[in-house]
Amino acid sequence: MPSPLKYNKKFDKLTDEERELLEINKKSIADFVEQSPSVSDVEYATRNAHAKTYAVTSGEFIIDKNIPEKLQPFFDKDKYDLKIRFSNAHLKINKGKKDIPAYGFAVKIKDENGDLLANFPLVNFPLFPINSVSTFLKLFTSVNRFFVKKWSSFSLMMQIIKVIPSTLTGSFLKNIAKLWSKRNDFFLSFDYHSVGAYRLGEYMMKIKLKPLSVDKNFGKRLKTKNALEAYLKTNDFAADVMIQLCYNLEDQPINKLNVEWKNAPYIKIGQVRIKKNDLLDPETCENELLSFNPFESKIFFQPVGKIQKLRDEAYKVSMQTRLKMNKLLKYNK
Known about the structure:
Elements: H1 16-40, E1 52-63, E2 79-88, E3 103-110, E4 116-123, H2 133-147, H3 153-163, H4 170-181, E5 192-193, E6 197-200, E7 203-211, H5 224-234, E8 237-245, E9 267-274, E10 279-280, H6 285-288, E11 303-304, H7 306-329
Antiparallel strand pairs: 1-2, 1-9, 1-10, 2-3, 3-4, 5-7, 6-7, 6-11, 7-8, 8-9
Helix pairs in contact: 1-2, 1-7, 2-3
Organism: Chryseobacterium taichungense
Protein name: Catalase
InterPro entries: Catalase_sf
């Protein structure tokens, strides 16, 4: 097996034009979060993505005893404490409707002293439809403005059309078909993935979480939130945590997110485990204001890539605005 490719700051570098578009996008994020109580018809400000919380729980990350020697320095304890948020990717909280099967499994990893090691927001679709930073920022800005009624649906549609060509790769179409075939499956039966790469020290990795022995038909007649709560109240949950390492940019591209990595075998590093009835109250101030910004992680676990780089500013603006709004609206009573 060849040596993994080393991280370089050039993978993250934005152009002047991209930075200008990012500033515009940040303003649209703040506007959306400020208007989100009316957008979602709730009494608090929501996130501007993954707004709907299904459940929050504690858990453990158990390190595999056979982890490769070169990875042991990053996982030098037997286990780590977790806080996990299960969510839906939509910007708006839909009530009384069937949710689109775009799910989030966000993990916060802490050491034995309670200090944060890493945030990993994982999703049940392994690819991202946009490689161009400019295209993504324009689309995301138009989506935010659409929801706060500052931009027309025609403008949004024009931005969506620009994205379509990058969704026509074999990898993307294959995974769309797979998601469609599983659209009615239980939340915890999906695999969950990092979108884009993360650092692993001087290396770069992608992450996959693969649940073990979960019935895809569990809670078929229940709403997603109710099914998830019912499962976690009565069942232990376990999922293997696996990573791929980047060896060359042709087979494992960092800034081409609409294709799967190939010729990069999965390496099991441990398991995520949740004990039954370990649910936390998702509406408490502490849990509602949870942040899973991956740039708050230790430097050797931080995101890599241009699209990933945008997350840092976006998470900060969203969190700052949400914190300000919710202290006024929800928790100052």
